[in-house]
Specification:
mainly alpha, 2 domains, 69% helix
């Protein structure tokens, strides 16, 4: 780890601690102040790139679970949220079906690129449609449509431009 990243990490940690030690405004619950402290901590980490994004994600979720879990509830201040309820409060909005759909599409796209499946699909479709200009247009539409449904972008960049010129231009209008 570079010295710059270590300094940036400790700056983010100092900002987190400072916000936690500030007097709590009357209108802001303690859990809100702690969530705000974690948000500023995360912003400093991301802006300075002190740690990688996966590491910062683990740190943020852990801090949210710990700090909000040790905060008093709004209804009964003598009772703490607990880590189970804190996780539900802090990451509950990320558990919608749309987020799962996008996450699943990204996993499939990564798997397609790692295995080379995106190239095989593109070449298979292009071998089936032939080399006629109109067929190449339809084939190019298919080649870009199928991977975009799954999230891969490689075939789009490979066949960008006038698809009729792929055949060599001999029978292009």
């Amino acid at each position: 780890m570079k010295k710059k990243n270590i300094i940036a990490f400790f700056v983010a940690l100092a900002v987190l601690i400072i916000i936690l030690l500030l007097p709590n405004p009357e209108a802001l619950p303690i859990a809100g102040q702690r969530a705000l402290a974690v948000m500023v901590f995360a912003v400093v980490l991301w802006v300075t790139e002190a740690v990688t994004y996966p590491v910062s994600a683990v740190m943020i979720v852990s801090l949210l679970a710990l700090l909000i879990g040790l905060s008093p509830t709004l209804e009964v201040p003598s009772i703490l949220y607990g880590t189970k309820d804190a996780l539900g409060l802090s990451i509950g909005d990320f558990s919608s079906t749309a987020v799962l759909l996008v996450g699943g599409a990204l996993v499939l796209a990564a798997a397609m690129e790692i295995t080379g499946l995106h190239k095989r699909i593109a070449l298979m479709i292009m071998s089936k449609v032939g080399t006629k200009p109109n067929s190449l247009v339809i084939g190019t539409i298919l080649v870009t449509f199928i991977p975009h449904v799954t999230g891969s972008k490689t075939p789009t960049s490979r066949f960008r431009g006038d698809p009729r010129k792929i055949s060599g231009g001999s029978n292009c209008p």
